[in-house]
Amino acid sequence: MLAQSLTSFPDAAACLPRCIGAGTPMRDRVQAYDWDNTPLGPIAGWPGSLRAAVSIVMHSVQPMFLWWGEELIQIYNDAYVPCFGVGKHPAALGQGGRACWPEIWPIIGPQIDAVRHGREARWYADSLVPIWRNGRIEDVFWSYTYTPVFDEQDQVGGVLVVCTETTDKVLAERRRHALDLLARRLLGCRSEDEVRAAVVHAASDNPGDLLEVVLLIGEEAMAHPPADLLTIRGAELQLCDELALSFRLSPRLPLDGAYRQFLEQFTATVCATLSRLQSDRALAQAMAESDRLNTDLNLSSRIKDEFLAMLGHELRNPLAPIVTALKLMKLRSGSNSETVHEQEVIQRQVDHLVRLVDDLLDVSRIASGKVELRKETVPLADVLNKAIEMASPLLEQKQHRLLVDVPTVRWHGDPARLAQVVSNLLSNAARYTPAGGHVTLATRIKGSTVQIQVTDDGNGIPAQLLPHIFDLFVQGNRQLDRAKGGLGIGLALVRNLVQMHGGEVSAYSAGAGRGSTFTITLPDSVAAETAPPASLAHSAPAPEQGAGLRVLVVDDNQDAADSLSELLGALGYRPEVAYDPVQAIALAAAGMQDVAILDIGLPGMDGFELAGHLRKLPGGDALKLVALSGYGQENDKTRSRQAGFAAHLVKPINIAELQISLS
């Protein structure tokens, strides 16, 4: 009996409808709900179709929702509960659809009716269905299906909803697209006003997230923004300190981490553009300043070149008659003159002045890239002998002892320039070595490399001066006697010419009073030995002096013209002198000369114009033209050749060059 009484009480769990289940909040809530007071009635009386649909909903892990009957009574599962947010759950359970969703009924009502009457399922992807939750209407995006559920009469008894909220995905894509559009708009901005306009357009492109965006720059960014706007400052992002953006946000979206991150990225993008504009402005200003400086530099360089050329011309003009007069003195007096010593002094000083002018012009031409090396293969000894010859007046004057060690090798380079370099070093050594000192010129050959050293036991170089010894216009301390002082350009010229040969030059000194050593290294310059060219059977005969040629000398410097005329007469020529172009034309018209030496820098009509007039006179076609100028740069000589001049003499005139040009 006891056993019978025990089995007569049914298991409580077994009494629960298995279609609903138990053990989860929503299953328990559905089990406990008073369905008797709803159109569905008690669970026990539910038809099989309803029980089957409820079973699918309650046992699914996918958010599901069931509307049943004409009033669309609602049943949903645990997975759907988070979709409600705060405000509708749990009142939505057992509630009619229209009463539960009045805010979206204009959207979903027709969709439900379409399924109920059309008896076909419908699919909606990432659809905006804003619902009331968390105390406000929120923009919510869903992907969902409405599926008809048929009852026992084969009618649509309910609608099954299988849904997924895609708000996060849709907003992320929308915001990413908005940032892309913003970046593209900002890419073409060239001013702050254009950036402001781009920001306004960006807000209108994405009204779902941004109702208004205000760009604040400078003092505006530092002021307190309106309370109804969210302001993000560039400084907060460690970007632009003087920039802020104030956003009027959508009231239908929560200000969560993703929303704020979007606003920060928006601000960072604008900051980057303004930084680019500032950099562009700074770069443009720097480039404009650089262009201005380059223009000024080029102008200064051109003015400097013109000044140096004019300086050379003006210095050579007075030198020309001095040199010519000195040569006349030597021709007339020979070696028995009582003024031989004085002539030698004048010659040395004139040679020194000519060297100073040449060095000054060379530095300018090298600095402006107007000097080209004229390389050839020559005996190195010939080059160094020429350098010694150029420096010998100063060496002899100070009674220095010169020791020379030069091997017999052939060297490839510009012999005139290397002679100039070594001569400068020898002259420097002589200048800064007390009288009676020792100067050594030594050469070492290492493979194809030539190393030339000039050593003296003179004043030496102070340690603080040594690093700058090759800089332009740098000089050592001078004694009271400045007669042989230079301009501080010789060593700068040495370095430039050596570097043009692909070599390098260095200086060493143990200190003041302990002498100095300058070393030139010229790599890949030793030429292979070749058989010497066969000597000519007869050397070219020297030009006959004068040969009675009539020579017209035209120079507005009367001293220069007269002294040159006297020199020509002493050499056997028949000179005629004119001090201006009009006089020159008159002399030529009276009887055309054989040669005309024309000063290029004549007043009123330059030498080129005068040459043209002389050519037009009777016999002018056969007239030989020789240019005379204080300008001796290559472009000056080129212009003379193009104008029909047979030679271009640079003041002061070298007698040998003069005779060659007249021959």
**Which value, in Å, is the CA radius of gyration?**
53 Å
CATH class of the largest domain: Alpha Beta
CATH fold field value of the largest domain:
Heat Shock Protein 90
Count of discrete domains: 4
In the CATH hierarchy, the architecture of the largest domain is 2-Layer Sandwich
**CATH superfamily placement of the largest domain:** Histidine kinase-like ATPase, C-terminal domain
The proportion of strand residues reads 15-25%
Shape verdict: rod-shaped
The number of distinct β-strands equals 23
Unreliable segments of 5+ consecutive residues: 1-14, 477-485, 531-544
Describe, in plain words, how this protein is organized in 3D.
44% of the residues lie in helices and 20% in strands. A hairpin with a 2-residue loop joins strand 4 and strand 5 (136-138). The protein is of the alpha+beta class. The protein folds into four domains: 25-165, 2-Layer Sandwich (Beta-Lactamase), CATH 3.30.450.20; 171-285, Beta-Lactamase, CATH 3.30.450.40; 372-526, 2-Layer Sandwich (Heat Shock Protein 90), CATH 3.30.565.10; 550-662, Response regulator (Rossmann fold, 3-Layer(aba) Sandwich). The protein has a five-stranded antiparallel sheet with strand order 2-1-7-6-3, sandwiched between helices. It has 20 helices and 23 strands.
Summarize the structure.
With 663 residues, the protein is α+β, with helices and mostly antiparallel strands.
